[in-house]
Amino acid sequence: MNIAGAEYSNKASSGVRHCHRSNKVDPISAYLPTSLRPVVGPISHNKATRIEDAADDGDGDRLSKLPNDLLLNILERVDTLDALRACFLSKQMLKLPTLLSQLFLSAGSIPGHHDSARVFRPSEVLRTNRAVAHVTDNILSTRSPEITISKLKIKFVLTQHESLTIGKSVACAMATQKVGAAEFEVTTDKAYKICSPADFLHFGKQFNDFVGACPDAFAGLTRLWLRNMRFGEFDIPNILSTCKLLESLRLSHCDSGIHSVLQVEHAQLAELEIDQGKFERVELICLPKLQRVRYNNWCSYEDPLYFGFAPQLSKLILTKTAVRSQKTLELSQLLANVSSISDLHLDFRSEKIWVLPECPKLLTPVLSKLQHVNLDHLPEGCDLAWTMFILEAAPSLKELCITLWDHWCIMATDNEFRKKYGFCEKIDMKWKPYAPDFKHKNLAKLTIYGFQPDDNLLRYIRSVMEHAVNMAEISLHDRKVCVSCSDSDSEIKDKFCTSRYPRTAEKRKQTTEELDFLST
Signal sequence span per UniProt (predicted)? Predict the structure, then answer.
């Protein structure tokens, strides 16, 4: 048994680059607009002396002295605008942009964007968006057609001129060059929180016009991510029919109107993600290659998904902040036409449990191939006995991961607000085993984050150990840490419960012995 504290870190890597700037007009100037080039200002006497000393040590411009294949490998791992800025400072690297096989151009690649503390103005993003269009056009039109573009990803703001420039450049490249995976990530010049209903409709129409003007570019896309758009009833199906090679579609705050029904059919689509939106229901009619579905916070009071023909579906992720009035999902009905799920992730956002424990007779036909289950953001202190229904109904289950966490920065904390909108207080899910003596032969690993050595959790772990006769590993971790929660105001911090996780070797040994004793 492994009782290990979970560690979380955010280490920023840094490197030193010594580059020089050529006095000549270089070909790279055609790619990177003046406003986004690195600024090389006057050098103080002390700084100049240090550079000269470094040069005397044979240490100057180390990056550009690397072999071209290694340089290309490095440059293809970063944003292409960052790569161009690096190339702009070195004579040796000026020819490299035309040799890149992977291109990632982003309107978020503002000079200084690696500084997480910096706040950017909308004008800076739009200026970089113009640069993305400019660079896309220039770099795709000057490349040798003999060099395959293995991956092309462009993240841009939906504006008429820049979008058309990008779309037509990509369409031309697809017609004249070998382009592998191509991806558009399209956002809007207004954030979701400040968009009016008219804004959503405007952005939807603007995107439809973009698709109509550049159908050849969309015909070659393999991935598409859209944000903040409201479409007509048939717009999304029409977009999908244009994107014939599409393998991944993500819709964030997009829909076809409040309480609309989206029907999805596509021959190649393997991944579908929906964040928010106002769909009443998403019907997956015919998706022969669909493998992964993720639905985050649906607004419907009924089943959010209907599965038609999706024979390869293996991973399902559902996330929901549920209130009292919303329906509890019955997996036997939701997955009635799907028996291929092997990976199930349910995120409860520290609120109401919105899945109903059902009897094995109903559930086993749809969960017979289930191997991995992740139950995330369960309220701290809740009785976990109800989760045993998964063990009873999923004979192939190998791993079960549970996270107990009152994640205050994603929860509604105002009492009046919670009452008004029907948020639940902590209520244990009622459940009793249908076969108290059942044995599970395949469950090998149980992981719990947010473990506290109380009777509730110890009793639950004991129960799992009794039923899972081939258990190989139980891994118990302290609750997860969130920086935003730590920075919360004092009123929220007062809600935090001090962790009693066994941190010392002596206390861990005591907990292990207690579990071993309970299981005998």
Answer: none
**Could you tell me which of 470, 462, 468 has the C-alpha nearest to residue 439?**
468
| pTM for the structure as a whole | 0.85
Element (H, E) at 228: strand 223-230
Condensed to tens digits (0 to 9), the pLDDT of residues 154-169 reads 999 999 999 999 999 9
Joined tokens for residue 25: 């007009």
Helical segments of 351-473, H only: 360-367, 388-393, 415-420, 455-467
Could you tell me the residue ranges of all domains in the chain?
345-520
The tokens for 240 are 């999908």
DSSP string, 13-79: P---------SS--GGGGTS-GGGSPP-----HHHHHHHHHHHHTT-TTTGGGS-HHHHHHHHTTS-
CA-CA distance, 359 to 433, in Å (whole number)?
Answer: 8
By the 8 A CB rule, do 373 and 418 touch?
Answer: no
Task: Give the pLDDT confidence of 122-149 residue by residue, as tens digits.
Answer: 788 888 899 999 999 999 998 888 889 9
Give the CA distances from residue 37 to residues 21, 47, 335, 379, in Å, rounded to whole numbers and listed in that order: 11, 21, 53, 50
Q: Phi and psi (nearest 5°) for 376?
A: -110, 150
Dihedral (Cα; 75, 79, 85, 88), 10-degree rounding: 40
CA–CA separation, 405 vs 511, rounded Å? 21
Strands 343-347 and 315-319: parallel
